[in-house]
Amino acid sequence: MKDAATRDSYGETLVELGAADPRIVVLDAGVSDSTRSKKFGDKFPDRFFNMGIAEADMVCTAAGLATTGKIPFATSFACFLLGRTMDQVLVSIAYSNTNVKLVGTHTGLAVGEDGPSAQMIVDIAYTRAMPNMIVVQPADWEETRQATRALAEYEGPAYFRLGRPKVKAIFDSSYKFEIGKGRVVKKGSDLVIFATGIMVQESLKAMEMLEKENIRVTLVNISTLKPIDRELIIELSTSHGAIITAEDHNYIGGLGDAVGEVLLDTQISKPFKRIAVRDHFAETGKGPELFEKYGLSANHIAQAVKDSLR
Amino acid sequence: MNESQLTIPDITKLEKLALKLRRLALKIIFQAGSGHPGGSFSATDLMTALFFGGILNYDASNPKAPKRDRFLLSKGHASGIYYAVLAKAGFFSESDLDSYRKINSERFLSGHAHPKTPGVEIASGSLGQGLSVAHGIALGTKLDGYDSKVYVILGDGELQEGQIWEAAMSADKFKSNNLIAIVDYNKVAQDNITKDLKDLEPLEDKWNSFNWDVHRIDGHNMEAIMKVLQLPLHAEKPRVIIADTIKGKGVSFMEGKTAWHGVAPSAEDYEKALKELE
Question: If we measure between CA atoms, which residue out of A300, A170, A176 comes closest to residue A247?
């Protein structure tokens, strides 16, 4: 267990993977010190391709490498990795079904001071909408380690959503990550929160506050946003009185919608609130300040819980 | 086959085959009622030389053999000729071509190619991506220590996509000399002649300044095509062959016409065209 940014865990795990499997290759688009892919590059320069500030070229080069049996991790800031390459990702990766792992770091408002052009809040929406693409966002250091390995083993296109700031350790080494499976982090009874990424940590903070008022909620970590764990969502939505989703992403097309789709499909009708960015661009500022101002903080989650139980 | 072995009968044979392939491509475009004859015919002689002139190392019965050379058609709309060539090369049967652009096509002979079709490496249909993909393959086969070469045909209009020049910089950076790009310079795009749409010239200077090994040929002169394709690889530079071609080459009323970029011929035009392609 370790308090660390998910991108740090990713960088370390890449090095371990690279040592074990010569098929692992890593590409970056000129920000490898920040994405931590540089660690791999320092160790395995022959299998590291820094494509310069050219994301479209990078993701298609990764697709080409994949057709030769390599397992490419194409890494950059999520804004540019995906924002500049929707067509390339759609045709050369999703439609071609090439075994490329797209790794976007610096996601959501948690990025902070670089402002809205660097705060990727639409990536889950559009990668989820791509046929063949799976979408994974780990919550902490341990889960990132395991998810990085699982994605290397998984055959097919994947989007891996990572964050910039340090996050608290949630899982120990007994945790077993599995693509497509959610995990109950804490069992309560009054209400269920489905959270993803940094919002798992934020939800735990909210739950500490709520426990002082004797409100016990169930917290579920949804690290695979697609394919989503329908069974677990159905089970827990049925057994709890209300549902909240929490994500550092626009409320359109993200976790909230993914959970909402399951509820609609199965005609589960419960009070349902989505903690997410409310379809606007934020501004510059520190991550926690932005969370407070734009409705993503533990305070907002706690308030949403209380409102739901009223 | 090397240059010394190449005889006039070989060239004549390839030229005849190219005519046959044009007829086949036009037939499937006619049957489908849609497709892109103009850009198929400009690329035909180049693809004939690659697949049937002993240039590409492939095994149609084992299309994924790791050490194979690769061919990519980045200007994916020329699928008519692509499938005609792949069928003729034995990746699937000529009767499969009847399902070109039709629903439930068993070989997935889609309007633009997809790797579900034997012999196809990557999906196309959005211009500008093929050079990067080809470069990725070139990097991958080198990592494996193979001598595979990667050929990619680019359209001239496609060179207006910025990503082509990103890839051009990358292949220079990594000294990917096993990457060979062929520009099917037919001077005509869907909307307009390329020059008026956005001029590519001076095109040789552009590639030279990106530090590529630049060659320019007549893309319908089979001897010139074979000669350039038989050159040994450059020691460290990726290669570009700028092939001056004619859109709709071989059919007088199609040649150089934007109108024949993306339409199938009528029954009457089809018969007329076939006669010219004898």
Answer: A300
Angle, in degrees to the nearest 10, between helices B37-52 and B79-89: 30
User: In chain A, what are the domain boundaries?
Assistant: 6-161, 183-308
pTM: 0.97
Digit-coded pLDDT (tens) for B201-219: 999 999 999 999 999 999 9
All residues of chain A having their beta carbon less than 8 Å from the beta carbon of residue B136 are: 60-68, 72
CATH number of A183-308: 3.40.50.920
Measured between CA atoms, how close is B238 to chain A, in angstroms?
A: 15
Tell me the helix, strand and coil percentages in chain B, rounded to 5: 45, 10, 45
Q: In chain B, whose CA is at the least distance from the CA of A61?
A: B136
For residue A96, what is the nearest residue in chain B, using CA coordinates?
Answer: B123
Place of tokens 């068993």: B106
B20 to chain A, closest Cα gap in Å: 30
> Do B143 and A47 lie within an 8 Å CB cutoff?
yes
Q: B139 in contact with A at a CB cutoff of 8 Å?
A: yes
B5 has a pLDDT exceeding 70: no
Which chain A residues are within 8 Å of B133, Cβ to Cβ?
Answer: 60-61, 63-64, 67, 92
Strand order in the sheet with B179-185: B70-73, B150-155, B179-185, B239-244, B213-218
Q: Is residue A47 less than 8 Å (CB to CB) from chain B?
A: yes
CATH of A6-161, one of 3.40.50.970, 1.10.468.10, 2.40.160.10, 3.40.50.2000: 3.40.50.970
Question: Do A6-161 and A183-308 show the same overall fold?
Answer: yes
**Residues A85-106: tens digit of each pLDDT:** 999 999 999 999 999 999 999 9
pLDDT (tens digit, 9 = 90+) per residue, A183-240? Answer: 999 999 989 999 999 999 999 999 999 999 999 999 999 999 999 999 999 999 999 9
Residues 3-32 of A with CB under 8 A from B: 25
Distance from CA of A62 to the nearest CA of B (A): 6
Reply yes or no on whether A213 is catalytic. Answer: no
